């Protein structure tokens, strides 16, 4: 840990690479968490998060924990014992939601789909018709464990006609793919800072609609988590500035700067950048005989799951990339461990150079391990370059 | 928020000022949270925390949230529904513990003392004799809301003879005052990073004894918080490195550096520094007619509560100090709002220069507001300087 810090190219499932302006904001001398300077920053962060989430929701704040704390915050605040909660389960994060619903003493109703595929909206609506009193329908917008891209709009429209809340995990999608919290009638949405926002991990942006706030206010039992109790946290971030906990000051400096960078680029431009680099990577990998593992037509732009060819050792290749290229890609989670790689192109990490770098490095790694390239070595780079030229 | 960053002298209840080496560590380019570099850092942080807590406990880690998340982590993991929990209540943080025990569906048995005084160990032991089946006795080592310093040793010795756990909030005391987790038989202890460790807020160091781990392993119900479930978190920080959440990488860089600074100074030397500067401040304030508000003989070294003189407006003076001197001191919390100031001398902020600065600035503020100095203006500085010369 001494000596010159190692610079990694971070193409895993997060953290992604962080802009030097964000690193500089992190190293800014501290101010108190009730200092007028910080109170002004809190206001700015809320405005910038509303911009990123495409929402006018009053309660739009960063939770003082990582993305998983955002998931838990949504669920513990909105679920009371006995509440039915329909959860789309097609990977690690839907599975985690079911776990948390149980810890809230809610009744989880999982709607399953194979890992790598989406959960059909119609299946979720069918579960809702069977359980019209369900408190919420929860889905993972971008299933980081598989690369599947869950459609939201149709579900949101259907749920907006009901008393049931629409809860969306946007940990990996926020600022990397279209997300319209208000237009799509999303009632509770949370994210993480270390994915397409390209801020270090440590905060969880979260927004609640008025429909969700009404549920929170009507609770008959106390929220089981004091730390994540949004009825208290909203007073800390609101006009009252009522002390709750001490906000992570430096992380908020960083988040503000990361969000300013998003605004400067523009959300649509940022989404387009993520799309183009994904398409180039997909074409390059396909030309190498490595098609993406997620459902065709439902593949995320920021997280690409790739099947590992027979005879190639997962950890061996990832160690090689890290050691020889300072390049990180992710391994598989749960049942996919050892059978897929996960290549992230998130936020600052989504660049043309990184697409070509990861294809080149993978080619070197596979070639050295005797992999038989179906279209010959070099085809991947050519295909990606062609995609970049036309995209 | 644009332009040159404002540098504050942070003499409130935290955050304290952060060493430039820690700020530099924060701005280090990121690595992945499963990168070998980060795994090595996790090991180093655990070793350094064991050093700071004076413990050999295996489970000694930073929780990915602020000090309050540390409190919640201890309680949700160790308490099951129906468990009796004896809590010393003499300020904001004991009150908060009672609140959290209720959210865990435990039965809180508060043992109260006036704010500013300690909770007599004998009163807590009496409550234990009346409730010998209590799961835990919980106290706040350094009650940041009042400045009272709770003695621990006698309680720890008594509890070590029982099945009851000893839970200690060391948010404000760790690395600023003597704390011996193992020698004092403390079973669960947590802290915050932004007090005497002089790291930004955002992590909560925590350690559990084997006696506490046995309780955790014997639970018949799931821990109600997924995010704070130590049975999973220990696998992430342990040999398995099993993915749980994404650790706040940059904050952990900072914590490691802050802990290295503690080790370089030495714990005893650091405690002595906190004592000397507290004594000088106390003498200076007394000479200005501003005695400390907490119980005599039980006053914390790192957090000094001072009664606000009649006719002096709390917020007016604090705004003046911030505006004219870039100097932050804290206001009172809860029932003490408006009636006390809280002057922190924590970590990097505990310096001779800061003692003299805060006395000088307070003198200017009070003089301009017509305060009648009992020993004449200048007596405070003289008394503090004399204390520093002899201390």
Description:
- 2 copies of one chain form a homodimer.
- Chain A is an alpha/beta fold and 391 residues long.
- Chain A has 2 domains: 19-264, Type I PLP-dependent aspartate aminotransferase-like (Major domain) (Aspartate Aminotransferase, domain 2, 3-Layer(aba) Sandwich); 267-390, Aspartate Aminotransferase, domain 1 (Alpha-Beta Complex), CATH 3.90.1150.
- Chain A is 41% helix and 14% strand.
- Chain A has helices at residues 20-26, 36-53, 67-78, 92-103, 121-130, 153-159, 210-217, 230-237, 249-265, 267-287, 314-325, 352-368, 379-390; strands at residues 9-11, 60-63, 84-89, 107-112, 136-140, 142-143, 148-149, 165-169, 188-190, 204-208, 303-307, 327-331, 340-344.
- In chain A, the strands form 3 sheets. In chain A, strands 2-10-9-8-5-3-4 form a 7-stranded mixed sheet, sandwiched between helices. A 4-stranded mixed sheet of chain A has the order 1-12-13-11. A two-stranded antiparallel ribbon of chain A has the order 6-7.
- In chain A, helix 11 (314-325) crosses helix 12 (352-368).
- Chain A is globular.
- The two termini of chain A are 41 Å apart.
- The mean pLDDT of chain A is 97.
- Chains A and B meet through helix 1, helix 2, helix 3, helix 4 and helix 9 of A and helix 1, helix 2, helix 3, helix 4 and helix 9 of B.
């Amino acid at each position: 840990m001494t000596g010159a810090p190692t610079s990694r190219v971070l193409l895993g499932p997060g953290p992604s690479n962080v802009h030097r302006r964000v690193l500089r904001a992190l190293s800014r001398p501290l101010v108190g968490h009730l200092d007028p300077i910080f109170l002004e920053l809190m206001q700015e962060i809320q405005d910038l998060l509303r911009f990123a989430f495409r929402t006018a929701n009053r309660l739009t704040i960063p939770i003082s924990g990582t993305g998983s704390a955002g998931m838990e915050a949504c669920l513990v605040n909105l679920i009371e014992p006995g509440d039915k909660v329909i959860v789309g389960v097609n990977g690690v994060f839907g599975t985690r939601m079911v776990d948390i619903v149980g810890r809230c003493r809610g009744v989880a109703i999982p709607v399953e789909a194979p890992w790598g595929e989406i959960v059909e909206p119609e299946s979720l609506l069918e579960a809702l018709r069977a359980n019209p009193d369900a408190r919420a329908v929860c889905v993972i917008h971008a299933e980081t464990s598989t690369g599947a891209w869950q459609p939201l709009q149709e579900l949101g429209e259907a749920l907006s006609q009901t008393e049931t809340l629409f809860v969306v995990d946007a940990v990996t999608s926020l600022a990397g793919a279209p997300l319209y919290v208000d237009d799509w009638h999303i009632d509770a949405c949370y994210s993480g800072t270390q994915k397409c926002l390209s801020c270090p991990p440590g905060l969880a942006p979260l927004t609640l609609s008025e429909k969700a706030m009404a549920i929170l206010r009507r609770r008959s039992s106390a929220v089981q988590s004091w730390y994540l109790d949004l009825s208290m946290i909203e007073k800390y971030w609101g006009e009252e500035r009522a002390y709750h906990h001490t906000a992570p000051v430096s992380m908020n400096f960083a988040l503000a700067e990361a969000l300013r960078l998003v605004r400067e680029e523009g959300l649509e431009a940022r989404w387009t950048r993520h799309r183009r680099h994904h398409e180039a990577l997909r074409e390059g990998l396909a030309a190498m005989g490595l098609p993406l593992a997620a459902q065709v037509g439902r593949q995320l732009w920021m997280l690409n799951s790739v099947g590992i060819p027979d005879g190639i050792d997962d950890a061996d290749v990832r160690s090689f990339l890290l050691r020889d290229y300072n390049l990180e890609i992710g391994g598989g989670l749960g049942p996919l461990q050892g059978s897929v790689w996960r290549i992230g192109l998130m936020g600052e990490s989504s660049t043309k150079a990184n697409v070509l770098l990861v294809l080149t490095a993978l080619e070197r790694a596979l070639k050295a391990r005797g992999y038989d390239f179906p279209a010959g070595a070099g085809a991947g780079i050519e295909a990606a370059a062609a995609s970049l030229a036309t995209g």
